[in-house]
Amino acid sequence: MKFETPPWTEIDTVMFDMDGTLLDLQFDNYFFLELIPETYAEINSISKEESLIIIKRLYQEVQGTLKWYSIDYWTDRLKIDIRSLKRSVVNKISIRPNVELFLSKLLNLNKRLLLVTNAHPETLRIKVEHTGIFDCFEQLISSHTLMLAKENPGFWKRLQAINPYNPNRTILIDDSLPVLRQAKIEHLKYLWGIKTPDSQGKGQISCEFPLIDDFKQCFPNQTTGL
Ligand SMILES: [Mg+2]
Q1: Does residue 1 lie in a domain region?
Q2: In this structure, which residues have their CB less than 5 angstroms from ion ligand 1?
Q3: What are phi and psi of 137, to 5 degrees?
Q4: How far is the CA of 43 from the centre of ligand 1 (A)?
């Protein structure tokens, strides 16, 4: 899909996803596809290859549900202290290019910023502490508090009931295509994706949503507000 800058004068609420959107998904991919399988292999005295197969199967069982994103679920399922493991590698968490500048430009235009993430509240806390980029958000919302994942039917209506927003004047920027599709079904008007959520991974393509490569592409014009 051809890339166009969002029509900022038509938008007053900007909803951001966290992982793969504001933060580099490399951390999460490393954590879930390398560190957890390695740790699971050690604890259970199996090879890394065997461990990865088992872990991937367990991931598939709950993909697209809140369990997938739950620290408590994985701590219990894998018998690994996921909180401590996550805290042990916080130095690998990184912010995607031009995020701070983009957020400050939106604030200058008095846009309302909401973080809407599937991350577990504890993961959110760890990332907030480590990155320090979330002070300018009006609210940080973990989907766990709404009991639905963002890609689940009804999530966006439930969010609207709790945190009122006008779907015709709201943009959602999120690297997950299933999340964008669900938001579209629930009538959010402006939906932008992310081309390369993991800086070390392959980019994604979409004919449904414009994908942002670098937030520079979306900077509003400070004088016209467009
Ligand atoms: Mg994401």
Answers
A1: no
A2: 17, 19-20, 175
A3: -85, 140
A4: 29
